[in-house]
Amino acid sequence: MHNRNRIPFTIAVLCAVLFSLAAQDLHAQVHIIRQDTISAWSWFGGDDRPNFDRSVGSGQRILIDADMTIGSFSLHFNDKFDYSQNPDGHGHEVTLRLQVRDSSGTVIKSDDTVLPDSFEGGWVLWNGLKLEASEGTSMVFTVFLVGGYDSNKYTSSISASATDQYPHGTMVGKYAKSDEGFADWADWTENTTRDLAFLVRGTRTVTSIDATPALPQDGIQLLQNYPNPVHGHTRIAFALPQSTDVTLAVFNLLGERVALLTDETLPQGVHHVDWAGIDVPSGSYRILLQTPLGTASRLLNVLR
Q1: Is the predicted pLDDT of residue 225 greater than 50, yes or no?
Q2: Are 107 and 55 in contact (CB under 8 A)?
Q3: What are the residues whose beta carbons fall under 8 Å from the beta carbon of 175, sequence distance 6 or more?
Q4: Confidence of residue 20 (pLDDT cuts 50, 70, 90)
Q5: Phi-psi region for residue 13, left (φ > 0), alpha (ψ -120 to 50) or beta?
Q6: Secondary structure of residue 179 in the 3-state scheme
Q7: How far apart are CA 20 and CA 22, in angstroms?
Q8: Is 44 left (phi over 0), alpha (psi -120 to 50) or beta?
Q9: Cα separation of 79 and 157, whole Å?
Q10: 33-201 adopts what CATH topology?
Q11: The CATH classification of domain 212-302, taken from the options 1.10.10.10, 2.60.40.1930, 3.90.226.10, 3.30.360.10
């Protein structure tokens, strides 16, 4: 049901923005693409078992949904890195290599991160990517264990969703017998039933006219998600007057949390978070934004 009383308010907000701008100032907004539902795990890394002559790499094809500068990429692992056949019972220091590829599989950026032997699972971050990406392009983020075939036959399990939570891409994987073998796009294969748990974080440059109207100095603002009603994907925008801890979640009308979208410290500004691969029954749900500065909520409707 449409609320006609919203029309004057919308016009008033737009006019306030227009008249408040002496120029269209450029500024950066944090932009996040994520799939963090975890319901399955896949083999990752070396394999010291007899007759398993392999090292296993994994990756994810991701649709870039806004012009952005990609700053970091994260994947989730379920366990420490140890031998499979004859485990030492403790983790080992390993180097994981991220190779960011264009839609054809060509490597455009490579970055290593070192995990200490104390690592026992969790999110792994590759920071400082500084990659310009255009809206509508597809990129593939592949990762492998350096030396996993010969000198470092340690294994872990990489976290994924078994229910195809991310509608804009798919998990990829490959067996290889050298680090150079993983760089070659040949034989990377798609797993259309799974998506890795991933987080792409960056910034998008916008003009003031594209942004949310200025906030009170002591207030937060949660905007209505779009699209609404939701058929599988929606975007939620909110604005912070200063850097603060933020929790953004979705609850059903019984008060049960059905999705945790953000739980981190975010800087001042306007933020956009996607809720993708929505797998909840049709009905009404409440978006809840919680910060030390205050709490805000809105209703959204899911149609399946």
Answers
A1: yes
A2: no
A3: 54, 55, 56, 187
A4: very low
A5: alpha
A6: helix
A7: 7
A8: beta
A9: 6
A10: Jelly Rolls (2.60.120)
A11: 2.60.40.1930
In the predicted model, what is the mean pLDDT of residues 68-89? 94
Q: What is the mean pLDDT of residues 187-205?
A: 90
DSSP letter for 223, please: P
Structure-model confidence comparison of residues 246 and 27, the more confident one: 246
Tokens of 61: 């094809």
Q: What is the mean pLDDT of residues 284-298?
A: 91
Residue whose pair of structure tokens reads 């294994």 in the numeric block = 155
Strand partners, 40: 160
Please provide residue 220's backbone torsions phi and psi, each rounded to the nearest 5 degrees: -110, 160
Q: What is the mean pLDDT of residues 164-184?
A: 91
> Under 8 Å CB-to-CB from 193, ≥6 apart: which residues?
162, 164
Q: And the tokens for 106?
A: 């060509």
Domain boundaries defined on the chain: 33-201, 212-302
With a pLDDT cut of 90, the percent of the chain lying above it is: 55
Q: Chain-centre distance of CA 221, in angstroms? A: 22
CA distances from 183 to 57, 114, 125, 229 (A): 10, 19, 20, 42
The answer to whether the beta carbons of residues 297 and 288 sit under 8 Å apart is yes
* Sole residue written with tokens 């949310």: 212
CB 293 within 8 A of CB 220: yes
Q: What is the pLDDT of residue 27?
A: 53
